[in-house]
Amino acid sequence: MRIGEFSRKTGETDITVKINLDGTGRYTLESGVPFFDHMLTMLAKHGLMDLEIACKGDTEVDDHHTIEDLGITLGEAMKRALGDKAGICRYATQFLPMDEALVMVSLDISGRPYLSYDVEFFTERTGNFEACLLEEFLRGFAFAAGITLHVKKIDGRNTHHIIEAVMKALARALDQATQVDPRVQGIPSTKGAL
């Protein structure tokens, strides 16, 4: 089992994440941001990873610190679960429709963090959730996990559908890229390290 655990405590948040990359999509989530709990369930369920997340954040200020730090903590836990990355597929691209929305997520578990984010929203919020926080989560996650991550909205108007499509596409891409391929001998890089 490839399991990673990481805790992060700052003056703004106190978060513990445990991830099992070889799970079945089970989850126990308490982020303090109900909409984002819904999105994290998508990550677990569609990525077939088990997630345990306990988070206390300064949501009385706003959700920014909580969402950004959730990305960082989840990324660190994933990096630990991947270990030396021997045998993984490494790359994945997913196109995912959610009603009128269509997004593409493409990633490389390269050890070289990068985020290309091309997602436009027509509303600033879905419910109480600020749509711009999706980018903060993805940046924190990609940089902590050491992933090159490209996210692009191809179509869509409904903010909820767009965010949900991004999270589901990310989940499916992570599941594909982290799979162990028996044909891959050692680290999937000509450099010998990721």
From TrEMBL:
Subcellular compartments: Cytoplasm
Signal peptide region: none
GO MF, one example: imidazoleglycerol-phosphate dehydratase activity
Entry annotated with the keyword Zinc: no
Database matches in Pfam families: IGPD
Superkingdom of origin: Bacteria
Chief location: cytoplasm
Catalytic activity: D-erythro-1-(imidazol-4-yl)glycerol 3-phosphate = 3-(imidazol-4-yl)-2-oxopropyl phosphate + H2O
Pathway participation: Amino-acid biosynthesis; L-histidine biosynthesis; L-histidine from 5-phospho-alpha-D-ribose 1-diphosphate: step 6/9
Alphabetical GO biological process terms: L-histidine biosynthetic process
InterPro entries associated with the record: IGPD_sf, ImidazoleglycerolP_deHydtase, ImidazoleglycerP_deHydtase_CS, Ribosomal_Su5_D2-typ_SF
Keyword field: Amino-acid biosynthesis, Cytoplasm, Histidine biosynthesis, Lyase
Enzyme Commission number(s) of this protein: 4.2.1.19
EC supergroup of this enzyme: lyase
A GO CC annotation given for this chain: cytoplasm
Family: Belongs to the imidazoleglycerol-phosphate dehydratase family.
Protein name, as recorded: Imidazoleglycerol-phosphate dehydratase
